Amino acid sequence: MIQKTGNIVFSIAKAVLFFVVISLFFIGQNVFYEETLFFFWGNYVTLILYAAYLYFLCRIYHAFKFGSLNLMEIILSWILCIAVTNILQYFILSLLQDGLLPVAGFLAILCAQIIIVAPLTLAIDKLYLYLNPVQKAIIIYGKEEKARIYGEIIEKHRNKFKINLIVSQDEPIEYLYGLIKESGSVFFLDVEDKTLGSLLEHCFLHNKRIYVLPTFSGVLINTAEVTWISNTPMFLPKNPEPDLGARFIKRCMDVVLSLLGIILSSWLMLIVWCAIVLHDRHAAIYKQVRITRGGKRFTLYKFRSMRPDAEDDGVPRLTARGDKRITPVGRFIRRTRIDELPQLFNVLTGAMSIVGPRPERPEIAEQYEKQYPSFPLRTKVKAGITGLAQIYGQYNTAPDEKFFLDLMYIERFSIWQDFRLMLQTIKVLFRPSSTEGIPEDTTTALRED
After folding, report:
1. How many CB atoms sit inside 10 A of residue 391's CB?
2. Is residue 117 part of a domain?
3. 308 and 421 belong to one structural domain
4. What angle do CA 143, 144, 149 make, to 5 degrees?
């Protein structure tokens, strides 16, 4: 009963935040753009449209994910949602007025919304932590190295979990049952299927919150449909091949968006090209062989962000933290993702798509395949500029984690998913950690097990 009451209070707090943002816009519209106001029902229509855009973007950018995202990411999500919604509403109202409205009023409204939203999100975040106290948690692992790596990741969420014990799956099953019973949350990291099944049953029996590290089979089952053979239920993994209609729509989107991107960013690409050439008098465009759908090789274009002699030793390697091969211009264009802009030409020619798994270098892909034999499955679709792994992972995310994210994208393929990932990419541009390099003295992001 207490938990249900807490959930209701938390839901009301989020609704109040949503209502405040809408109200501030309407007040600002009355103050700065009185000429855009309609009769009674007309104002309701524009407010409903504004609320619809805002809610849609809040879902896209996870603005309501208090407890799952850190406070700064929640605030960033709200700023993006409000900014994009205000821009849409600005053009709609301008269209209704047969001319562009002054921008100053909209900027004032945006500033007022941000000033109010920041402390409100802080208050709601505190409310969430109050209503959801830190849970006792245990980690049950199959491989000790995985326990160390993910234990450090989970420890960063001290406001949500307190790891009481990290224990091997090889301990007696009754001992593990006892630990589970005393915990609120249980993390399973690479636990063998037979042991995992018994422990999951015990968790369900005692209403424990369960977190399971993805596996190849787990990803397939997660996207499976339920079918029936006679009176027997069966899981049917999708293993989809996009139909001709979906491929045609996706290709049309790629052509239109890449052309639009090239036209709109041409001035920026010219400035970056000049900056790189003036810095060291070498070519601004970096060409590299990558692999795309079906393992086909193609030449990928990027703005050069490293010294011309970066790989003169012939060893292909990823970028490390504090990599001294990166030039001053390169550091900026990598952080802002401007170095990726020439890949719009790869999309236009059909070698890549806007959304899809990132293309790997053949030499590095071969290294990954030795440790992860299923890695080539990510080439079932065209490589992309952005994708699930780029939005929810980072540059230095381990290949197995990126593989599972890419596999989830492939298994759940839809035009709607592509559209949603394109919008979510905007948020990634404001997240510096997404371009952080791999540890020094390493050539790939492989982890030793």
Report:
1. 20
2. yes
3. yes
4. 105
Cβ pair 403, 374 in contact under 8 A: yes
Residue 448 domain flag? no
- pLDDT (tens digit, 9 = 90+) per residue, 88-123? 999 988 888 888 889 999 999 999 999 999 999 999
- Strand ranges (DSSP E) for 260-368? 285-291, 297-303, 353-355
Cβ atoms within 10 Å, residue 94: 17
- Give residue 81's pLDDT band: very low, low, confident or very high (50, 70, 90): very high
Same domain, yes or no, for 79 and 113?
A: yes
Where does residue 356 fall: left (phi above 0), alpha (psi -120 to 50 degrees), or beta otherwise?
left
Residues in the chain: 449
Coil, strand or helix: which one is 33? coil
Q: What is the pLDDT of residue 152?
A: 82
Predicted confidence (pLDDT) at residue 6 exceeds the cutoff of 70: no
User: Residue 401 is inside which H or E element, if any?
Assistant: helix 399-411
Contact 327, 306 (CB under 8 A): yes
Q: How many domains, in total, are found in the chain?
A: 3
Distance CA(286)–CA(306), nearest Å, equals 9
The pLDDT of 273-287, averaged and rounded, is 89
Report angle CA 120, 61, 432 to the nearest 5 degrees.
90
Torsion angle of the four alpha carbons 400, 402, 408, 410, in this order, in degrees rounded to the nearest 10: -110
Asked if residue 51 belongs to a domain, the reply is: yes
146: nearest Cα among 168, 162, 179, 163 = 168
Domain boundary among 89, 116, 131: 131
Task: Give the residue from 28, 72, 75 showing the smallest Cα distance to 50.
Answer: 28
What is the domain extent for residue 96? 2-131
Structure tokens at 5: 């009451």
Over residues 10-32, the pLDDT tens digits come to: 889 999 999 999 999 999 988 88
Instruction: Name the token pair of 76.
Output: 């960033």
Q: What is the pLDDT of residues 66-76, one digit of tens each?
A: 888 888 889 99
Q: What is the pTM of this model?
A: 0.81
Which residues face 228 on adjacent strands? 233
Phi, psi of 353 (to 5 degrees): -120, 165
The structure tokens listed for 293 are 């759908």
Q: What is the pLDDT of residues 36-52, one digit of tens each?
A: 777 667 678 888 899 99
> Which of 131, 157, 184 represents a domain boundary (last residue)?
131
